[in-house]
Queue: 2 jobs
Job 1
Amino acid sequence: MVDDVFYVLQSCCRRAISTSNINSVLALLSGAMNLLSNEYQEALQQKMREPNLGTKLFLGGAGVHKTGTEIATVLNNMDVSSEYVLKLRHEIEEQCIEIFPAPADREKIKSCLSDLGEMSNSFKQILNAGMEQLVATVTPRVRPVLDSVATIGYELSETEYAENEVNDPWVQKLLHSVEKNAAWFQPLMTTNNYDLYVHLVIDFIVKRLEVIMMQKRFSQLGGLQLDRDIRTLVSHFSSMTQRTVRDKFTRLTQMATILNLEKVSEILDFWGENAGPMTWRLTPAEVRRVLGLRVDFKPEAIAALKL
């Protein structure tokens, strides 16, 4: 549908421009905008409005892949439409420069073309909403594994730390759940869409992990364990998407850095003027709170810090 619609629009625009009649071009552009913003946009969104769409993804059987393919196709159409609108705008602009030299005519065309640019943004907004809807159906499948992290202890002895290195307590289970419930969309989506999809899943995971970790108590080895866990997550998710994921985990990484400190005052080696290239995503209050998670750090030492 997408290729056909834009091929027809492209052909009509070329024909209108070839008449050298500014009113014909403006009328055609107005009609194109009306089509894209109404019937076409409605057709794009129709599938995502089906009831119980998320449930169908996890019923089992051949219908699951069919539903997944249909959803991915809808989202792909939104992504491609956003790109095609900009290409159409650029082509019309190039052709009109040659045909309509009068400044007044060019200004009228420019005004219409700016609407096409806005239409591209509109498609992106619809895409984001559709992608969030999809992610909302997938994340409940991942959440049980995430919630189980709340039962994992981080007040580790050397023996426990060594044991975790051999038998990972939760990270691999989480990654397996992501692969099982989310990664199968990869061959069905455009690269741009799959990257967006993965990043939204990461957002969900990171937000939940931050809440869970803020409720724990840590030994220094526990802080080292958290650092190892986060590095494993970053490495795996980096392999799933072409866009960088490291910034998504910055707050968790900074929490791990704090929990790895030898003593409370060491935070000053990384704070303020000593931060170097590091940009702190944690507020001073959050830094104090994270320091307070260490079982061996004294509250009075934390309170005395000047951050």
Job 2
Amino acid sequence: MSRMLGALVAILLSLAALPAQAAVVITFWSHELGNSFPHAFFTLRGIPDAGGPPVDLNYGFTPKTVSPAILFGPVAGRIDIAKPGYMNGSDAQFAVTLSDAQYADIRRLVTEWDDKTGDGVYRMNTRNCVHFTQEAARRAGLASVDAFPALMKKPRSFLKALAAANERRVTIIGRHGKEFLASLPPIVPTPSAIAPAPVAVPVPAAVPVN
């Protein structure tokens, strides 16, 4: 019983440490095991300060075809949307609350790296999934994003190093994806995010002209 109570307290404390959902929160994830190679991606969740519909998105960057060709030069890449099963098997590393300007800038980043709207070229050494999350971290206002060149093919190590370098700016999560996703509350619009009902303006009656 005491162990169950301790586990419950630990979960509640970790939830209390998460950023509030009154703004959009970016969470950085890593994926290390399974049938695919290591990967980094991020989620966007919450409601912009200016209002609008709830945001619940995720983005990564990956080659269109995983083959030995990625070792020898540039290949076609694409924005990748992780499925729930993949996220369940990944790890949420840390989160940052975004301003609306930062959120918009990160959405532009996705457009810039999307092969349909920007440059979708994937380069293993200089433009991979870790570089994509690195640029998202830069636009989220984090420091030292260029300080770990030896970790740019190691998603988990890079994100942990980046979190340590920004310990006062980020919220450390460090939880397995399935557990973390199950703990997230619904995104509920705040009063400021709900558009006010239109106010009827009385129209003066027409005055007959003699």
